[in-house]
Design brief:
By secondary structure, the chain is mainly alpha-helical. It is built from 13 helices and five strands.
Length: 329
């Protein structure tokens, strides 16, 4: 049997080339080798105040972008998190097992609390438990994670330990991290010391998958670089140009050393122009496919319904085992 992989993206902000390189691009490469479950994490989006109309539209948009970016609904289980009620149910069981001290260690809660000081809600505090439920429902063997999510996966593994201790081993599967070999961390175009974020308040800091091609050209050509002039990959010394080299390598498939050789003696502007053209050439067919999907939303909804049904069937088996173990079945 194929090993199971589970991942998803929270339905906030705009999906960016950073999400594509660091996550969705890797997902696409895994869909033939693994049994893949990929969700739009709309329940997680509620930890931040949302405009209901915007969230409703964004859910559908994210799902369409998944498919447009290469995730085949026939090869993967693609679904909306909120369409599978077992996520919320298992999350409550796991919440009752998780010590507050473990949640207090979560550095992302501190970061997000600073960002959303006027809305520090309980969901913001406990969402790593919902994330654990997301993973454990499908008995995932592997979870693609970036560096900033490793702590949450460790908490998930701790929660499996709490459950095993209280109710016996073998009911929940202990997941392992899957970290892509390349492009795991794409940085902001305006501050290359920070990770590119789809929720960044400065739209010049990221390239959205759905940005008009002229805007993509402008953003990349306006990316912050460094005081030097040589196109050399050294993130500690030249974070700006190193970030652009990483993006170029990810989109072209060329090794970083090959890119350095090709641009030896050239200026930063040469790389920016070529990179802008490359990103536009890659995203143009993606945007066309996306528009086709959004213009035929009945087909899109059918994909969502089929994915939710398949995910629910898998999730219910795990939930039944958990409920039997804890004594409410």
């Amino acid at each position: 049997m194929k090993k199971v992989i589970l991942s998803g993206s929270t339905a906030t902000g705009d999906l960016t080339i950073g999400n594509y390189i660091g996550a969705i691009g890797n997902w696409k490469n895994l869909q033939t080798e693994y049994d893949c479950f990929y969700m739009v994490a709309d329940l997680h989006a509620l930890t931040v105040k949302q405009d209901p109309k915007v969230l409703r539209e964004r859910r559908l948009s994210f799902f369409a972008q998944y498919i447009a970016l290469g995730l085949d609904p026939e090869k993967n289980t693609l679904f909306m998190q909120s369409d599978v009620h077992q996520h919320a149910e298992l999350s409550w069981v796991l919440t009752c097992l998780t010590p507050m001290g473990f949640l207090n260690r979560m550095t992302q809660f501190k970061d997000k609390s600073a960002q959303h000081a006027k809305n520090i809600n309980a969901g913001l505090y406990t969402y790593p438990i919902l994330m654990a439920a997301d993973i454990l429902l499908y008995r995932a063997d592997l979870v693609p994670v970036g560096e900033d999510q490793k702590q949450h996966l460790e908490l998930c593994r701790d929660i499996v330990g709490f459950f095993d201790h209280n109710y016996g081993e073998g009911i929940l599967k202990l997941p392992e991290p899957y970290i892509g070999k390349q492009g795991a961390r794409i940085m902001s175009l305006q501050d290359p010391t920070r990770k590119m974020s789809k929720s960044d308040e400065n739209p010049k800091s990221f390239v959205s998958i759905l940005d008009p091609l002229k805007k993509i050209q402008k953003k990349i050509k306006g990316a912050v670089t460094d005081s030097g002039s040589e196109i050399i990959f050294n993130p500690e010394v030249n974070p700006g140009i190193s970030n652009l080299i990483t993006i170029y390598s990810s989109f072209s498939g060329k090794a970083i050393s090959q890119i350095e050789k090709e641009y030896a003696g050239k200026m930063y502007g040469h790389l920016k122009v070529d990179l802008a053209d490359l990103v536009c050439a890659t995203l143009d067919p993606v945007q066309k496919k996306y528009n086709e999907l959004m213009n035929d939303q009945s087909a899109l909804v059918q994909f969502m319904s089929a994915g939710a049904l398949a995910a629910s069937e898998r999730a219910q088996k795990t939930l039944n085992d958990v409920y039997c173990a804890v004594g409410i079945r």
